Amino acid sequence: MRPSPLKLNSLRFLHVSVYPRNEPETLDPVENPAPIDTWGANIHCSLTHAEADKLEGGEVRDYMVALGIQVSDGPEKEVPYKIDVECVGYFSIPNGFPDAAERLEIAVVNGASLLYGAIREQIATVTSRCWYGELRLPSLNFREDGPAARAAAEAKRRAAEEKSGATQPSADPE
């Protein structure tokens, strides 16, 4: 294990929405419910990032990563809350890390992981005081969402298109 070169400078929530699926019957006493497992629920992530402008003659060392999470029912899993959360983090990587592509990869993948941890904790905290009990989001892996993985997937998709286009006869417009 080694420490990450990524430094979290600031993290802010843009919005946190947690609504019960059904209005609870508040006259019935509530027991301490077990934590709600989200295995099988649909968890939609929206991940965006940006690089700060380079200083004259310098390299990009500052990054912004934004992560949104929406939780909804899955094919076989009903979730008692409607959840929509978005937060943004501002990160930096100190000098001494020379490769720009690797810096961006670390900023996006590790940054998204840090933000998701904050979102998981926020949802657990808010729902622990809600009627239906604490909702626990599963762990997620953001490696496939990094710039290198997306570029590799796009290159693979293009190669498959070229291959399938080369083997199919072209349609004659006449």
UniProtKB/TrEMBL annotation:
Composition-biased stretches (Basic and acidic residues): 146-164
Region called Disordered, residue ranges: 146-174
Compositional bias of kind Polar residues: 165-174
Keywords: Plasmid
SUPFAM superfamilies: SecB-like
Official protein name in the record: Protein-export protein SecB
Organism: Cupriavidus neocaledonicus
